[in-house]
Amino acid sequence: MTRYFFLFLLLLSTAALADDGSRLWLNYDLIKDAKQRESYAPFTKFIAVSSDNQTLKIATEELQTGLQGLLGKKVTILKTATSTGGILLNVNQNAPSSANISNEGYEIYAEKGNIVISSKSETGVLYGAFELLRAIQMGKSLAKLSITSSPKVKIRMLNHWDNANGTVERGYAGSSMWKWNELPHRIDPRYVMYARANASIGINATSINNVNASSRFLTAEYLEKIKAVADVLRPYGIKVFISVNFRSPRTLGGLKTSDPLDPEVRKWWNDKTKEIHQYIPDFGGYLVKANSEGEPGPQDYGRTHADGANMLAEAMRPFSGIVIWRAFVYNADPNGDRFKEGYAQFKPLDGTFDPKVIVQVKNGPIDFMPREPFHPMFGAFPKTTLGMEFQITQEYLGQSTHLTYLAPMFKECLDTDTYAKGQGSTVAKVIDGSLYNAQYSLMAGVANTGSDVNWCGHPFNQSNWYAFGRLAWDHTLSSEQIASEWIRMTLTQTKQTEQKISDMMLKSHPIYVSYTYPLGTSHMMGESHHYGPEPWLAKSARPDWTSVYYHRADSIGLGFDRTGKLSNALQLYSPEVQQKWGNPEQCPLDYLLWFHHVPWSKKLSTGRSLWDELCVRYYDGPVQVGNLQKTWESLKANVDPEIFENVKGRLKIQEKEALWWRDACVLYFGEYSKMPLPKPLTPPQRTLNEVKKLVEIYHLR
Ligand code: BDP
């Protein structure tokens, strides 16, 4: 009797802790509404696929698993449809809308009592299968289904900053998901889960190692390991890229130099590229961080970025792969403006890059700050293919403890008008290739995946991986729609709960910005770990790694003057953009201190002085986090208990740390403004020195 009782208790407790998050948005939990389940029954009698192709097999199995989970019934797989009422998978060059869809695109439509998923490629069918499962989870009716979709961007890529020793640069979800010590002999089942998750949102490329690259990844030993990964990812439509160290000809090849114009160096890269293709015939290409933050590059030999990139492009010429060259470069000039440096170094090279080169540009000119104006290179390089680099991992955005949904931030950048070719020349049109008719197009996101059981640390961080993929596929999707899809597939099927969670997500980025970087401030985080506030940081290995370099607080005011009076970085933008941001009276408050040094007492459009507005925002942030907590608490009975507790704990940390940011910034800037807090705000209950000590504690952790 007691034995059974304990067994019962055990079952009860495992049932209560049901969701560890490992299934991501592919949990396919049973649709609770029986009526809805029944409505899908007439179209889910079987799945028909005539070919044995591996990708189609994966699509079929995904549909089978998905439908079994969602509808609670086994769906049979047939070679050919024997009756109506099934899902037909077709690879078809002449499908009805084939003129309008690209090779990876798909159509899903109801026809003669069946649902047809059709594409010109097997991968397109796989994407269509995921879309159908999504449509079912979103409660769409199948009877008149008609979806046509093609990716807007060709290369939709994750950049892993994973190292050979298992650590992850700026990773906040455990250690690396790649088990280099086990590869190629053991294939961790998570590689397959990773491939499914990526395919489900259309990601088709991955660079597997840190841009601060070790040459080790080009050794035969590692190529064998990478091949094993590539073999797993290939049937899911994902190509593998490698980040390379520019000095590899010397360190690995034993040459005297790595000068890109040296014939022996060029031969070394040609041979190495051929060798890689023996392991990975469809190798995606190279990703290169050169002459940036101490990494080697062509400038070490008096050559340009184009010389370096074009050398690698030449090595890649016999193959389909490409070269992705990062524009994240800046010099340590105390009197300069880091904002301008990528532009300055690359602008003279516009038009000199090989067509196989994509220059990958971070969304903003500094470094993945929680809010940055778009990078001035977008729209200013008509003769170079520019790709977008977003950061999914939340280096400056609360890492894995602050709830920050990033789709609105990604979209803010993509939707901004560069005016490069007149009104409507958005950043999105630059990077999807439509503005300049580019052959290639790229959107890359620095991955937030790790060995944590739920992949991303904070359960909500999964939504940023999801959102990145969805936007790379279609940047016109709204943040609301993406949030709603993710919530439905991951957390709840109940409309009301979904709406509350969506509301939390959509508010989360503005909340984060309000207690960290209001009004266009930036780069005031703790040194090296990039967590917590350190606005007083004035000394570092480089001036542009301090905080004072950016906020420029003095007795007069706050902010970096980037008008003609000082750095004139504004001049890098088109006249229309300059007009919008160049006048402090008209500049949107969200960008104000990016471009203007504003007096503390200056009255803003809100009717408050700069100082008062700053304080109001810093104080509002933690209050809003409190509201997030209340909303979450109200959902206790409606979400999985394990996820509930996990998020609840992290929201508590977030609240504590929002207060930390608030107190640090208000106390520190108060020493410059010398103004009292506006009523009814009450001063922090600790001194600036006490707050400064918190950073030391963090360092010790
Ligand atoms: C910065 C990170 C650093 C990266 C660098 C990069 O702090 O770890 O190596 O970006 O993008 O944000 O290369």
UniProtKB/TrEMBL annotation:
Q: Which is a GO BP term held by this UniProt record?
A: xylan catabolic process
Specify the Alpha glucuronidase N-terminal domain's residue ranges: 24-132
Name the residues annotated as catalytic in the UniProt entry: E293, D367, E395
Q: Name one GO molecular function term.
A: alpha-glucuronidase activity
| UniProt xrefs under Pfam families | Glyco_hydro_67C (PF07477), Glyco_hydro_67M (PF07488), Glyco_hydro_67N (PF03648)
Q: Which UniProt keywords apply?
A: Carbohydrate metabolism, Glycosidase, Hydrolase, Polysaccharide degradation, Signal, Xylan degradation
Q: Please list which residues make up the signal peptide.
A: 1-18
As its record notes, the protein acts as a catalyst of: Hydrolysis of (1->2)-alpha-D-(4-O-methyl)glucuronosyl links in the main chain of hardwood xylans
Identify the SUPFAM superfamilies for this entry.
(Trans)glycosidases (SSF51445), beta-N-acetylhexosaminidase-like domain (SSF55545)
This entry's Enzyme Commission designation comes to: 3.2.1.131
* Domain Glycosyl hydrolase family 67 catalytic, first and last residues per copy: 136-455
Q: Which residues form the Glycosyl hydrolase family 67 C-terminal domain?
A: 456-679
Q: Which GO terms describe its cellular component?
A: extracellular region
Q: Does the keyword Nucleotide-binding apply?
A: no
Q: Does the keyword Repeat apply?
A: no
Q: Which domain of life is it from?
A: Bacteria
Instruction: Spell out the InterPro entries in the cross-references.
Output: A-glucoronidase_C_sf, GH, Glyco_hydro_67_aGlcAse, Glyco_hydro_67_aGlcAse_N, Glyco_hydro_67_C, Glyco_hydro_67_cat, Hex-like_dom2
Q: Which family does it belong to?
A: Belongs to the glycosyl hydrolase 67 family.
The protein's assembly and partners = Homodimer.
Q: What is this protein called?
A: Xylan alpha-1,2-glucuronidase
Q: Which organism is it from?
A: Runella rosea
